[in-house]
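Batch manifest, entry 17 of 40.
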Amino acid sequence: MITVAHVDHTAEAGGAELALARLVEKDPGWMPLLMIPPTSSESDTFAVVPQKYVSRLGVWQPAGAIGGGLTGQLALFARAFYQALVIRLNRSFRRAEVVHANTSRAAIIGWLATVGSRRRLVVHLRDAVDVEALGSRNTKLLSLILGRAAGVIANSNYTLRSAQPHLRPGTPAMVIPSPVGLSDERPVGGVRDDVRVVGMLARITEWKGQELLIGAFADAFAGSTVTLELAGSPAFGQDAYLEHLRTVVRDLGIEQQVRFLGHVSDIWPLLDSWDICVHASLHSEPLGQNVLQYLAACRPVIAANAGGPTEWVKQGHTGLLFETGSRAALGSALETLRDDAELRRALSANLARERPVPTDEAVREIYREFFESVRLR
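Output type: structure tokens
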């Protein structure tokens, strides 16, 4: 059985960390070794993973995406260098044949931990390799690492296309969706005649588009009995933005219609209760696990017409797409689904018939085959 070291720069609950925890919380078909920095027990995403596979070592790493000025980035690189050194000296790490870097930040750690060794580095891309997503210096550094990777996993074709110019010819590269907590094909919830609840499942952060949705919801449903539910806790350092959203809701006079649910552990009953599920990211998102979860639940979906979600949401067949960042376009899509119960039923029925989102078990098998193919090169 192949041994894979999974490297992450944080154990705090981001989309990448939740996906990795789902990937290895049950027997994945390989020997997983999780190499993560220490964190508080309250925010440890990997507490669900059998602890015999988890090594908490090195130093705390700031959560969130790569960013900041030159001084901040140098500090992050110094932490990454130390983390890589500690991992490289770890006894269990020496058994690893493949090293899976779970994020762009982890790719720096994984590269430093494997350089000069026979271990194969697989870089997992969850962001586009471009200046808009990563910044100029970080894009150059990640491009360098990609040129030395033995394999690349991307969360969408959109993401993979951004990386391909930086890969060596013949480097194995594959689009694999993240596991979304789908154990089997779920029974399909009913579609009501009327819309009662609109929902968004996403971390509270500006670029996820909660403010855009609040405005569009007010345009379509203000003064009605319809409720908007926003599920998700504030992203790293975004508590002030949550308070800003509460202010926006009050200013629009819809405070009785909007509920901030915070983090929701069991999402499936919640999704079953939503009549319309919304993805409203303000820029091209590489994937958006929430979109896959909406589709897996067979709910009527509205998504921004950019990036990876367009590979899954087919206009008028499995959902509706709207112009990214347009409050008017999102409001119009909400009104379309509000007024057309037959369309909502058709979208749900198409998803129930086609089941486009693979189960976690199926995703694990795809990963296993990819890791094996990289090891044998």
